[in-house]
Amino acid sequence: MSARTVWLVGLMGAGKSAVGRKLAARLGREFVDTDLEIERAAGCSVAEIFARDGEDAFRRQERSTIDAWGGRAAVVALGGGAMAQPGVADRLAESGRSVYLRARPETLAARVGTGQGRPLLAGLDASSRLARLRELLAAREACYEAAELTIDTDGRTPEQVAEAICAALGEEAA
Predict the structure, then answer these.
(1) In the CATH hierarchy, which fold is given to the domain comprising 5-169?
(2) Is the pTM of this model over 0.85?
(3) Going by DSSP bridges, is the β-strand pair 74-77/30-33 parallel, antiparallel, or unpaired?
(4) Which among 116, 137, 117, 136 has a CA at the least distance from the CA of 126?
(5) 4 burial via Cβ count (<10 Å: 0-12, 13-18, 19+)
(6) Running DSSP on this structure, what letter comes out for residue 71?
(7) pLDDT (mean) for 38-67
(8) How far separated are the first and last CA of the chain, in Å rounded?
(9) Helix pair angle (158-169, 16-27), 10° resolution
């Protein structure tokens, strides 16, 4: 098994964290959620970082976390906007294999629920959350599609998605 990082990319609600945990267990690798790593280092939530320091400060922290985990034997779930940042797709390709977890906006909206703790959905009602997810997907999908693999998550459990990723990557469970 290669020591290269498996990067999971996609919009919020695509299943990066849930699938990432299952995939890491199957591959015998560490699982990392970059948002949680950033929160741990900052001592506050992503929403608080956005409110206090702004998105640019968050993106700098995100890039630093990506650099720290690149090339390690880990499964890393990236925040929804990471792949859309300049240079990130190249960094992911240099240090591992990226997988776009694709889902329809309606699926994403159902999975994120009220959007609590998600700065880009803060204060929006259900129809506005769906509209915002459609906008974000339209703006970021080309970036996500730069991933090495695309796996659809609609109607699949995290276990089924992890299995599909293993098969697509040619990786065996630990």
Answers:
(1) Rossmann fold (3.40.50)
(2) yes
(3) parallel
(4) 116
(5) middle
(6) T
(7) 93
(8) 9
(9) 60
